[in-house]
Amino acid sequence: MKLIRQAIDFLQAQVPHYSKVGNSTFFTVDQFPWAKDLEANWHVIRAELDRIMPHAKDLPNFQDISPRQSKIAGDDRWKTYFFCAFGFRSKHNCNQCPETTKLLGKIPGLKVAFFSILAPGKHIPEHCGKHKGLIRYHLGLKVPEPKTACRISINDEMAYWEEGKSLIFDDTFPHEGWNETDDYRVVLFLDIARPMRFPMSFVNWAVCQIIALSPIVQVARGNQTAWEKQFEAIVK
Asked: Is residue 17 part of a domain?
């Protein structure tokens, strides 16, 4: 873990000099052409999500998959449906959502992908990501009204999810989320490798490889596999 932390700290300092997309809080879809493809096909992704949502209460909580998330997800109101994470692929979930999986396969540098499902009344307390070599992406899939009650604050700027629209940001800045409506809010949640110039692009790749082998990811992988077996029994 010390090696990972040292590598990440080194990379953080280099991002302003080597990032191909700058060092801002928010990014645009023009900087990530694949985001336009997701937006154009959001109804396809939503249709596959709709087949999952009747089982929302049976889906794993974020902390059930990744125990280190318990500080921000320590209840049963943040559900997850993982497709992949640092080299691990959920065969079951991908098979259930083949069109979404095809779209994900076109994204360069994809590291993490899942449906992030916030139940009514969920508040995600302020927190910061730890790796500036990743960029966070949300595609709004199910966003209940009113708009002001379903929102996210990033680096003291308020943003609002919209169905079929992308929200791209640097999650190392403080961010906090709310779903103060009476319905579920769902986004397609991605972490992608930040586009960087060589040699930092190689350093970032190496850091992500180390993260993939870390106990944190291996524990999450085991938890996801165990959940899939339980879920298959539930829906049979």
From this structure: no
Rounded-to-integer distance, Cα 46 and Cα 75, Å: 25
Helix then strand count (H, E) for the chain reads: 9, 11
Indicate whether 16 belongs to any domain.
Answer: no
Residue 144, domain CATH: 2.60.120.330
Count of C-beta atoms within a 10 Å radius of residue 46: 19
Is pLDDT at 236 greater than 80 in this prediction? no
The reported pLDDT for the residue numbered 2 is: 66
Q: What angle do CA 194, 143, 101 make, to 5 degrees?
A: 50
pTM to 2 decimal places: 0.94
Six-digit token string for 46: 């939503």
What is the percent of the chain with per-residue pLDDT over 90, rounded to a whole number? 80
The parent domain of residue 188 ranges over 2-11+22-235
Under the phi-then-psi rule, with left for phi > 0, alpha for psi from -120 to 50, and beta for the rest, what region is 87?
Answer: left
Binning pLDDT at 50, 70 and 90, where does residue 234 land? Answer: low
Residue 45, domain member (yes or no): yes
- Please determine, for residue 183, whether its predicted confidence score (pLDDT) is greater than 90: yes
Q: Which residue has the tokens 């990014």?
A: 27
At 135, is the pLDDT very low, low, confident or very high (cuts 50, 70, 90)?
A: very high
Q: Of 151, 162, 187, whose CA–CA distance to 46 is shortest?
A: 187
What's the structural domain count of the chain? 1
The answer to the question of residue 217 being in a domain is yes
